[in-house]
Fold:
Amino acid sequence: MKLITVEEHYDTDQNIEAFNQHSAVANNNPFQDQLRPALVDFATKVTYMDQHGIDMQVISDAGNSPQVLPDQYAASGAHAQNETLAENISHYPDRFAGLATLPANTPERAAEELTYAVTKLGMKGGIISGSVNGQFLDDPRFEPIFAAADQLKTTLYLHPGVITDEQKAVLYDSKAYSQMGATMMAGAMWGWHMEQGIQIMRLITAGILEKYPHVKIASGHWGEFVPMFLERIDGFSRLVSTLPLKFSDYYKRQVYISPSGMFTAPQMQLALTEMGADHIMWSEDYPYVQAKDQVRQFLAQADLTAAQREAIAHGTAETVFGL
Structure:
């Protein structure tokens, strides 16, 4: 079984230094020093892939992204990340494909960078991590990014990001548990994913996918809560939207989901029921998650038909990212 994983990450020493020097957003990776070889060194990645039966990774920067740097650093930082990623991929063209880091806080520059990265560097789409300074992507100022993606007929990976301090204070801080508990609840435990589900719900409700039907959206962590609420959302969508299609029609047409290392059978069966294997890809979230042999074994042992298994293992990703 050929295996392609699509939410796998990298960083560069240059970006780590810029982030630590300029970012007002707290470091998103408390294990940065321990994970540095697996993030920065592509030979280390290949060794891991060989050990655990992973044929290809679709690589992106979704940890401490230049996206959150001040505007004067974001575009140049993203461009440097993309050039370095392309250089690394050139040494292992059969093992990696890349997604462009986009300076989403400067939308016009982000659209230009996406176009450059796809047409000149061979990237397979772009990635945006979370809201942008607390603002969701349905705001009209971000429309150039979707217009460029639509023209390119490419994929935008909408990855979670660090939520704002204001959101954290209202939703997750409590006198009943520690600040560390609140930080985890606001982050990888729950909050990142809820916010990213809201991101996609807002984009569809605002008509972005109606206006830009050639954009493909990739969403990790089994769709960031959205698939389990599709029927519920449809039941209310006519009250908040005049779009010609139901919310779920756009979602099932243009959104593709993957587990991001959440190898859990009940969620997989729900995703399969709602989306079909042709809208599910596989992912580990390496190196933040290192599930090792389980990456392959879970899928090999899952309750799937042979055709579904092949689609999830590699077929859907090949279609979505043009591999």
Summary: The radius of gyration is 19 Å.
